[in-house]
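Researcher: I'm comparing several assemblies side by side, and this is the next one on my list. It has 1040 residues spread over three chains. Same procedure as the others: predict the full complex and return the structure.
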Amino acid sequence: MKKIIGVLIVIGLFGSGCVKRAPSPGITDSEILIGNVQDLSGPMKELGAIIPNGSNMYFEYINDQGGVHGRSIKMLIEDHQYNPQKAVVAIKKLIEKDQVFCMFQVIGTSPCEAIRPILAETGTPLIAPATNSGTMSDLTKQAGDLIFHTDTGYDRQAEILVDHIMEKNSDAKIGLVYQDDDYGQNVLLGISRAESKYGVTVQKESYQRGAVDFKGQTMNLLKGGLTDVIIAGIVREPVVIMKTAEAMNFKPNFYGTGPTIDARVGKMAGSAGEGFTATNWSYMWNSDYPGPKLYRDLCEKYDIPQPYIGLYHYYGFATAMVLVEGLNRAGKNLTRNSLIKGLESFNEWESGTFPPITYNRNDHAGVDKVQLVQMQNGEQVVISDWLE
Amino acid sequence: MTDILSGFGQEIISGIALGSIYALIALGFTMIFKATEVVNFAQGDLMMVGAYVNFFFVSTFLSNSGEPSAWTFMVALLCSIIFSVLFGLFLDFIINRPLKDAPIFSVIMATLSLAIIMRALVAMIAGPISLMPISPFGDNSITIGIIVISVLDLSIIASAIILVIIFYFIFHYTKWGIAMQATSEDPVAAQLMGIPIKKIYALVWIFSALVATLSGVLLAPRIALLDTSMGFLGLKAFPAAVLGGFGSIPGAIVGGVILGVIETISLGTLSFHFEWIKEINDIIAWFVLIAVLMVKPNGLFGIEKVKKV
Amino acid sequence: MKDRYDHENIYWIPILIIFVFLLPLILKGISFSYKYYLFVLNLAGIYIILNVGLDLLSGFTGLVSLGHAAFLAVGAYTSAIMVDQLGVPFSLSLILSPVIVGLFGFIIGFPALRISGMYLGLTTMGFGFIVKRIIISFRDWTQGSAGLEVSSPVLFGYTIKSDLDNYYLIYTFVIVAIIIGRRIATSKIGRSFMAIRDSEQAAEASGINLSQYKMLAFFISGLFAGFAGVLFAHTSSFISTDHFDILLSIYFIIMVLVGGASSIYGAVLGSLFIVLLDNLFVPLIEDQIQLLFNTQAGDIQSLIFGLIMFLFIIFQPMGLYGMWLKMRIYWKLFPFNPRQRFT
């Protein structure tokens, strides 16, 4: 008897998640359900809160205008704490239990790599993974045809930075400080390509995710007598390194890859951060292009709190535009295949937020160029054209 | 040659500064382990809570008075200390009291779940955006010859030394301290001798919350961006506490400084000259730890407890 | 020596096994999202295998390991490299990899001959970090921190791909692991382990070779973790060093302790409890809370998880198995139960 009751309880618990199965997952006449896996309580939880907020702002704007072909967009967000195992569980939940139509903006390189098998098995597209890793647009990898990458790869960014440095000063001695994980490995890939292109050796120093002290590395940069240093970090690393270097009276030109574009880097580094140059793969959020203008208007309209507004929030907004345009082009009869077809019809599509994006059967890379943004008198100023 | 020497000097000084950070956290571990044999996995997160609370007080006072002055920081520090004392009492109440007869491992697990709870609660209250703590010492640094050290680092080194001396004296030369030692040796016998062990346990938790808060206040400006993952620094201080011998107060600072210096030198000079060192410099602390434990199983300053059958 | 309350109800075991094998069909019948539930159960199954081994090491022998994720990692990477790069068949790897992990257990177990208690726990934790680093350093084999794609298991010419197939594969081994674990625990080896845990001196005095048995404990634990690692690598198709971080090791020891240390069933119950709590029930509660208060997800999830864990430890420090035993004795004595036994 106890057994039967136990079985009934288990059945009841599992059955409580039941909903009637929709003909095409995540699509009803009035709604499109999309899934997003973010780091909401791990080391990158700041981005996990800001980026989807930016996307939701745009979805709200679209929904207020009547949605895409009459369907409003609803985004479900799960937490992965920057752990690939949890990312797999979360994405399994979104696809199998919540029946989402497609995945959007999963953050982190290793979580994105870990979910490839599930994407391939269920045929779920992943639009705009929130990682700059160049491996995301590699079509030969598993589920490569389902992933639409928007950002310029870290490897390309590093190459472009070296190009820029060598152009300015052909006998520059370059150093690199990188995070010793998948992010750093992708940067190293670009650096080694640039090394063989120019026949130079880049002095490489690594640090661990979560490190607080960079004295040893800065000392080594100083000993190497470098003129230019590329920092492949996030926010804390460039700030601390530049401050330490200033205290040691060591003043090379500092450069940073994508994630260091955060405005706080310059703000916190103060005088040490003057002249810090970072790569940016979208229009600056405070520039006068139509996309950024719309962005600022919407921020005002939807009362976005001040600390959220900035580059990452804008990034969430900009990638949301890519998804909505894809859904638009997929037409009224929306399926996963028609979404892929819709996205692959992008030809120099001008969103106003990103430089023109082209997708086709053999190219899912999105943007592949960057602008350089420099700190001048505490303001971020664009100092270059689009570099490829 | 002078180049190498000055580089070495700089690295040793920086290593001592880094080691003092570890030592401050390790001191908190030591305190609780010494009296209750519990490894407090929530120590790093206690520190994080301290840093957040201090930030809250500083920013409240600043928004009232405007310009930061020495007084603002002093008053904020005092408020944080009062908070930490109350918080320590509260922790004793929710962890130690209910689990007084439970196996030690249950208490350790309780501290682990407490760490999860604290991290989540702080994140919910403070919001997802990282904070930018203000240092009372600014970015000033002192240059001696060619060696540079920031005032912030000096303050950390100084407080680590002062705290270790204070707690060493408390533990070894006051009535309460000796009572604590007796409790850690044999709680039952201590109780029979008339030592109020409940009060002793409460005191230990207060001390450790206090140390955690102080280190949180000092470290917050040092790590530039304050978020809840600051608690994970606790994991980095583990080898320091173990190396010195868990439960030995001077051991905490010695272990911390040794590891800090080794880490900085391996990141600096050693990886500059030997490429392969780069592969191992984040685990070098653990290598040293295991090597030392193989020779001295209770750490450098640990006391071996003789077990009877 | 068996107490009158410790008699096992053997006849429940076949029924349980049949239930385990019927469960997927029941789930499939009642819920279209059965694949997700199966996936979570598969994860729990892998952890069960590992935790049976961890329990033999930490619960029975009293050698605390805070680095068991490293064992899992070594098993997973060994098998992935052997099958995908050396061309060893999966069925052979299933035998070879656990043995290799067991031998690796010797290396980690070596310090245990001198170090004990929490010091040993932190030493094994150190090994966790070191192993992770070594895996990254062997870039040619493991592709460093970028992670490694792993092929699906092929057994007797049949490729095991879906969650359902994985379920049967994993749970066959779960049952085998539990039976073997029970056999070891009740054998001479198991009794020696417990003697070592209770008092090393007394054990040595009664003729137990301390170093031999401690090493054996690490070897056996490594074997179980190796099995778990092989299954983990091939059923999850992608492994990276981020999978095996220190928090996972700590979760493993929590699972064993929540279940109730030094009982195999405890390890099983604990693994199921924590995995299901983390992946099924907490999200369920969280969804309800989100409907009520309209809050952001994420931290609430860890808050609920932490709170449940905390309350559980405060009110049930003996673990799930201890709770079950208490209940059983309560029913057996009913209605003559002496009150003070259960307070």
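Model: For your comparison table: The two ends of chain A are 71 Å apart (CA to CA).
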